[in-house]
Amino acid sequence: MNAEDKLRLAVLLDTAGDFLRDGHWRDRDAPVFADGADIEGAAIGSTNDTIDTASTANGDTLEAIAAAVRSCTACGLCAMRILAAPGEGAAHPRVLVIGEAPGSEEDEKGRPFIGPAGQLLDRMLASIALSRSTNCFITNTVKCRPPGNRTPLPAETAACAPFLARQIRLLQPAFILCMGRVAAQTMLHTSEGIGHIRGRFFDYRADTADAADRGEPIPLIATYHPSALLREPNLKRPAWEDLKKLLERLQT
Ligand code: URA
């Protein structure tokens, strides 16, 4: 079993314990594991879907999108970033998870959701049998860190939107899960608050000039951002209710 499989198993067991004890996720750091002997077949639900196996009919690939994100200068955030965080996960995900924007850890490593909010996100996903290493792809509405973690400006979200659109076209997820207000409002073109948007299914449709290019609508559900749950633990229960709705749909 390698370190990633060990981590997935430990997160699953921790999460199960948290729910039995408290009825929701607790705040805890992810354990760190070293690679050990690779036990054949020990990985739970792992997949060989690697990032470079997805490509659309027009030849787009996740690697091409990531390279374009890393060299993007379409808005002012490029001048302040250390590394852009294009996104990561399964090449054929059931769920595309969309957050707001990278924070400081993400900016340093060029990976989405790896700080404290990301660790909680991983546990939230694990509780409904999802993970970035098997059946989810995780990204943000904006791929570069806004200074001081401020909310991305509309112009920054607009500049980054074509990357997200390419990722959605390529990944064709069965569901989209928006974490928090910014992702939900951006994807649904609404100014409604997250308290109104969360926990309901909407149809996401791509914004293309040509309606024939829009493809099938993708069911989208939003919940509270894990950072909000870390600040306000009483939001964990409603967030869990939202995730259960997604789980129910995933199982049918
Ligand atoms: N918050 C987000 O919305 N995205 C990240 O990648 C990290 C924190």
Task: Kindly list the characteristics that best describe this protein.
39% helix, 9 helices, single chain, 252 residues, 6-stranded mixed sheet, binds uracil, alpha/beta, Uracil-DNA Glycosylase, subunit E
3D architecture notes:
The chain has 252 residues and is of the alpha/beta class. It has a single domain, classed as Uracil-DNA glycosylase-like domain (Uracil-DNA Glycosylase, subunit E). It contains 9 helices and 6 strands.
Give a nutshell description of this structure.
The chain has helices at residues 3-22, 62-70, 104-109, 116-126, 154-171, 181-188, 194-197, 226-231, 236-251, and strands spanning 88-89, 95-99, 136-140, 175-179, 201-204, 218-223.
**CATH uppermost class:** Alpha Beta
CATH architecture: 3-Layer(aba) Sandwich
Helix coverage percent of residues? 25-40%
Low-confidence stretches: 37-52
- Output the helix-strand order: HHEEHHEHEHHEEHH
Arithmetic mean of pLDDT: 88
Q: Alpha-carbon distance between the termini?
A: 31 Å
Shape: globular
- Give the tally of structural domains: 1
Could you outline the blueprint of secondary structure elements for this entry?
Blueprint: H1 3-22, H2 62-70, E1 88-89, E2 95-99, H3 104-109, H4 116-126, E3 136-140, H5 154-171, E4 175-179, H6 181-188, H7 194-197, E5 201-204, E6 218-223, H8 226-231, H9 236-251
Parallel strand pairs: 2-3, 2-4, 4-6
Antiparallel strand pairs: 1-3, 5-6
Helix pairs in contact: 1-4, 2-5
This protein binds uracil.
